[in-house]
Design brief:
By secondary structure, the protein is of the alpha+beta class. It is built from 1 helix and 5 strands, in the order E-E-E-E-H-E. It is globular.
Length: about 80
């Protein structure tokens, strides 16, 4: 899934996926300055907890969703 957020002139893309090769859940941040940050999780519970905390953080920092999430064709558990 891909989510796009905005705050003023800043944008943030957040991608979630499952890495079939490693068996890890992956969270990728793409920032407006071109940098990216990748976080990996071994289990769905820790991944879900991180996503919940991230949603609260984005709300606190005044980020706003730029539309519904987009489903990516690859990167999902099979």
């Amino acid at each position: 899934m891909l989510w796009i957020y905005a705050r003023g002139q800043e944008s943030l893309r957040i991608e979630t996926r499952f890495d079939n090769e490693t068996g890890e859940y992956v969270l990728i941040f793409y920032r407006h300055d071109g940098s990216q940050q990748i976080e990996r999780f071994q289990d769905p519970d820790s991944f879900g907890s991180r996503l919940e905390a991230l949603e609260q953080q984005l709300n606190t920092e005044a980020w706003h969703s730029e539309g519904p999430p987009m489903v990516l064709r690859d990167g999902w558990r099979i």
